[in-house]
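job 3f2a | input accepted
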Amino acid sequence: MSFDEKIDVVGAGLVGSLLSISLAKLGFRVQLLERRPDMRSVKIGSGRSINLAVSVRGLNALKEVGLESTILEKAIPMGGRLIHSPEGNLHLQRYGKDDSECIHSISRAELNKTLMTAAEATGRVKIQFEKRVDGLEGLSRVIGTDGSASAIRKAMGVRTTEERLDYGYKELEIRPGPGGAFAMEKNALHIWPRGRYMLIALPNFEGSFTCTLFLPFKGTPGFDGLNTPADVENLFRQDFPDVMPLIPELTDQFFENPTGQMTTVRCFPWNKEGKALLMGDAAHAIVPFFGQGMNCGFEDVSVFSKMLETASDWDRLFAEFSILRKPNADAIADMAIENFTEMRDKVTDPAFILKKEVEKILQEAFPGKYASRYSLVSFSQVPYKEAFERGVENDRLLKQLCDGIADAKNVDLEKARSLVTSLRGTK
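job 3f2a | predicted structure (427 res):
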């Protein structure tokens, strides 16, 4: 292996741009191929992507290439979910044990632009825009980071399943107030859970909020029944009345922005000998409900770069990376789907709220020994597969502790101590 050889990276999105920076820092020459025009100089259509939440895994990967502080300067910390009831009541559910554990809302476009510019600044990355790649011909050693509909994956002929969620999403925007004022609480992820459907809103740096409405494609309500301005207004008047005054041009936005779809992509192997490798959404696209799609892709880059530093054979490196990351990608894909049910259905359920309150007590009483699945996923670098398995154990433990009590303050801490000691990974 030569650390001065040329590598083709296909797809200049978030993962491809970060990967190019990492490869350049190791000494490789990178040709980064992107089918779209340069978003730094050409306006890309809006309403097609969900706001991003960067957490520990993504921040660690950014830190490794010296960009963590640059990115955080234009990110908004969110300490928890702020639940909006149909009656307009608010309830904050914290993500972590205290204010130090938060996730950060960031603009996908601004992050992508920053990474592209940083890649070019290495002097070893050349980005070719409006360059469509349909196969492996004419490429050197190639890494496909070209998203869930990856042309590189198709050209490799790997076994692939695509599981389309029967829900769509529609983006809306709450504009900033006078002087860039935020119209709602700034440091929270807002959720309007309504059973089978929900609305969420994430803050943006300049004072706006990106709202995303998740509805079934068919049903009552469903996107198939929202055909006129009156249909949309009736839905919001009934289920999201506090949002209507914040989006005066609600129906205009609704019909101007496309309805997106969400797909889970699973494939294997991720490599074709030492010639081609998949990374990010090209290998493991997931639904957005754990906020981990980008974080998982960035972790791919971090893991791959560390393996590359000591590798001596491309075939073995690509194969071992594929085998190592596949179980973790499958685990976060499953957790993302589970979290959708939690966000839209469970966050207002008294039994769920009790469980979360008990869980917070356990994290405070047994620091370093008990951690929620959410904390393991968002605030640690514990492998996703292990976080998934710990979450199953946590659910059994919490069920035992919550049975027979109506108030978290009455939890039996001695019983909890015994149960916590038996958890996987507890010393």
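job 3f2a | The CA atoms of residues 148 and 282 lie 5 Å apart.
job 3f2a | closed
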